TrEMBL record:
Species per Swiss-Prot/TrEMBL record: Arcobacter arenosus
Domain of life, per lineage: Bacteria
Coiled coil: none
Signal peptide start and end residues: none
Protein name, as recorded: Multidrug export protein MepA
GO term, biological process aspect, one: response to antibiotic
Recorded GO MF terms: antiporter activity; xenobiotic transmembrane transporter activity
Family assignment from sequence similarity: Belongs to the multi antimicrobial extrusion (MATE) (TC 2.A.66.1) family. MepA subfamily.
Length: 440
């Protein structure tokens, strides 16, 4: 099917369904991680994962920035029928992510304890967090390369392959979680090893595509400077800012939670993140699938088609939000029990207090993600980054530092929902400024 010519709804669902299923595979694997760790390692295992999260945010954010920025450029070149130039962008991107990922993970590996102290880990948390993070850093380069390959596979008209890779990787993770944590009783070490092996699987599944006859993009000799990749990174800056912002916000939330509630507070915040992950990853899958579609139609100057794709994305993410709101309001205790043992009463109560406010996020998050993805695809990175910064860093930090003075502990729980709501106002303003008929 031609992205620039075929029926709009068919193209939308051909790209969005595999993307959503892929995101569900990723989120379900993370949720299964949380289930096994919460029930077989305990609160301290959940807290150790969350205290390590800023490291993953930085590395995954860089991979996303490079993936999104470069794949959008490559998609536009394919839309303009400049296939060799698109392959040059692809080849340079793979070289860049490979060198960066192995270098950064080595540096971080050699400074794990310093990092964890900086993140606010106490003496009880540091040993188990080191055990988890040291294994993860060995495998994260393969995840970063796999993320880049995933984006380019979709640009190369193979969204189903991208989905299958994410699904198989997640299934491997789930099976190995049970084997390592439950059967072999390897605890947090087993959880990290299971996740690491599944990340390596993602690379193994996707890489052969680019050596097949079905591939439009090929590995070619990367001629010229890497200025083009730097510019592509700039276009994907909003994704990096978004991930880094989540990491920084998590760092600040961890500090506030441990000061107010102890380790139980960090564990509860981890559970809330798992609940948010389900709905946000579905909406992210929908919005993310727009980028190769819109970038190609943007290159082909099909602005009316872009508008129709955005409408479908708005409707889809809004429906996801409604479902998540009903689940959180009707079944909060059931959802909390998935990750917590019966004797974790203090942690469970904090989770339930959080759910009284967190459902508000799902009114706005999908629409914010769609607008941000659209702006990235039409090469408006600053506008996209503004949305990412407001919803993931600036507003959450402002609210987490001010609302507790006005509303006590409830102010902590209100920070993320209010940040998403205020960000929606900014997103609507930017969308009206750069809507499809105005870029024509």
């Amino acid at each position: 099917m031609s992205v620039t010519k075929s029926k709009i709804s068919s193209i939308f669902f051909q790209y969005s369904i595999p993307s959503v299923l892929g995101m569900l595979a990723i989120s379900s694997a993370s949720i299964v991680d949380g289930f096994f760790i919460g029930n077989y390692v305990g609160d301290i295992g959940l807290a150790a994962i969350n205290i390590s999260f800023p490291v993953f945010s930085f590395l995954f954010g860089f991979a996303l920035m490079l993936s999104v920025g470069s794949s959008v450029v490559s998609g536009k070149l394919i839309g303009e029928e400049k296939i060799h130039d698109a392959s040059v962008v692809f080849s340079k991107t793979i070289i860049t992510i490979t060198l960066f990922s192995f270098f950064m993970c080595t540096v971080l590996f050699l400074n794990i304890e310093t990092l964890l102290n900086f993140f606010g880990a106490n003496r009880e948390l540091i040993p188990i967090a080191i055990e988890y993070l040291s294994i993860m850093l060995i495998f994260i380069p393969f995840l970063m390369i796999g993320v880049v390959l995933d984006y380019f596979v979709r640009v190369d008209n193979r969204p189903n392959l991208a989905f299958m890779a994410l699904l198989l990787s997640s299934l491997i993770n789930v099976i190995l979680d049970w084997f390592m944590i439950v059967y072999l009783q390897k605890g947090i070490f087993g959880a990290a090893l299971a996740t690491g092996i599944s990340q390596l699987a993602l690379l193994v599944i996707l890489l052969p595509h680019f050596f097949s006859k079905k591939a439009i993009l090929q590995f070619v000799k990367p001629r010229g400077s890497y200025t083009q990749i730097i510019k592509a990174c700039y276009n994907g800056t909003s994704e990096f800012v978004n991930e880094m912002s989540v990491g920084i916000t998590t760092l600040i939330f961890n500090y506030v939670m441990i000061q107010n509630f102890g380790i139980e507070g960090i564990a509860a915040f981890t559970v809330i993140n798992y609940l948010l992950l389900i709905g946000i990853m579905i909406s992210f899958g929908i919005s993310d699938s727009l980028q190769p579609i819109i970038s190609k139609n943007f290159g082909a100057k099909k602005y009316l088609r872009i508008n129709e794709f955005i409408k479908l994305a708005f409707i889809s993410t809004s429906l996801v939000g409604v479902v998540m709101i009903f689940l959180i309001l009707l079944l909060p205790e059931t959802l909390a029990n998935i990750f917590l043992e019966d004797n974790n009463l203090d942690t469970k109560q904090i989770v339930l207090n959080f759910t009284k406010f967190i459902w508000i996020v799902f009114i706005f998050d999908g629409l914010n993600l769609v607008i941000s993805a659209y702006l990235t695809a039409i090469h408006k990175p600053l506008a996209s980054m503004l949305i990412a910064l407001s919803r993931s860093l600036v507003l959450p930090v402002i609210f987490i530092l001010t609302l507790p003075f006005l509303f006590g502990d409830s102010g902590i729980f209100m920070a993320i929902p209010l940040a998403e709501a205020f960000s929606f106002v900014i997103a609507v303003f930017l969308f009206k400024k750069y809507k499809p008929k105005k870029i024509a």
